[in-house]
Design a protein that fits this description.
Elements (H helix, E strand, L loop, with lengths): L1 H19 L16 E6 L2 E6 L6 E7 L2 E6 L11 E6 L11 E6 L7 E5 L2 E6 L2 E7 L14 E7 L6 E5 L3 E6 L4 E5 L12 E8 L2 E6 L3 E6 L4 E5 L14 E8 L2 E6 L3 E6 L4 E5 L14 E7 L5 E6 L3 E6 L4 E5 L14 E8 L2 E6 L3 E6 L4 E6 L19 E7 L5
Antiparallel strand pairs: 1-2, 3-4, 4-5, 5-6, 7-8, 8-9, 9-10, 11-12, 12-13, 13-14, 15-16, 16-17, 17-18, 19-20, 20-21, 21-22, 23-24, 24-25, 25-26, 27-28, 28-29, 29-30
Amino acid sequence: MKKYLLFIFVIFLFVSCFEEDTTTDEKECNLECEKTEFCAFYIGEPTCVDIELNTSWTNLTSNWNYSCAINNIFNDDDEAASLLYCWGDPKASDFRNDVISLPTIENELPWEVVSRDYEYSCGISSGKLYCWGGNYNYQYGLREQEDIYYDQPQQIGIDEDWKTISTGSYIFATKSDNSLYCWGMNQPRDMGFGNNTGVPILIEHNIKDSSFGAGSACFINNNGELYCWGDNHYGVLGTGDKSLREAPVLIGTDWKKVVTAYNKTCGIKTDGSLYCWGKGNSSFIFGDDKEDKLVPTKVGDATNWEKIFLSDNYGCAINSDTELYCWGENSVGELGLGDRKIRTSPTKVGENWKEVAGGFSHICGIKTDGSLYCWGTNAYGELGLGIINPVGEPNDVRDTPQRIIIKK
């Protein structure tokens, strides 16, 4: 009898642990709030929060265990503050001492666009280009890889006409005239601009879209022509072979979007159809077919794709109906489908999405109403919920989208 009672008590404690950390979707928030507020759970507690503040998210960027987004809340002068909020593990240190589990203002500059990579970020403010964090990829315009770390944004050069920025082993940035520049760690000289350099080098004019992975890059010009170059492991360039290209090579025409990752590349044609190529069985988008795809290969029959995001092990895309689809690895619920089953083809997550980005094993997205959600693993606070759930503990992952809430 005593053993039976002890067993019941242990089960009660186990269930209680789960109930204390129930997700916001499973609770009923019934506080009476002002007209400019709504009831939401903030670190697990029902709270009245500002509507405008929590529906003004844009420009989402994620990498490893860290994410950032710009909040376009207006200030007292009716000007968009465009402050950058970040959360997760900023130094990818594998230690939790520096973890930020709630979205926190990164700095006070008003941002137009920001891109995050391993232990450093770059962004554009009033047309000026800034970077902060480590100097691992020569991003500060220094010809030497100096062991420095900037907590605050440092302006790169003196130009004031930058438009887009994308960070990685090197940096891609475009100017207002749609010219594309690249600089950073050119190793093993696969990007075709000589030795490692911190000086922006002109790659091409008239750019419509561009992306780069780990050693390879692609861009689409205003004529819809897709060019790729760099390291060609797994056939990620789409050239029909696996040979390195030190200069851009024409892959095809009628393209409007391209996204690269370490082991694959995907693109959207002007007719809205989706194509991918590179490592076979990567992200499981080609099912059990393990053959590397050396040329762009069509995925499904849909012709209404608009945006796409790739990780090494999964991918997501949004169509013209604002429906979000994801596929690939799902061991920690990173596909947001309510389970941990692998998907071998694009599977619908939900509706009314406009942006999506992801890290190592988490994904964040912004809905059409400007609200922000994250899902997947939460070992380093990367879901922005104000709590940390080490792997192996109850609720160590969230396999459905969880809304991120901030307060003034």
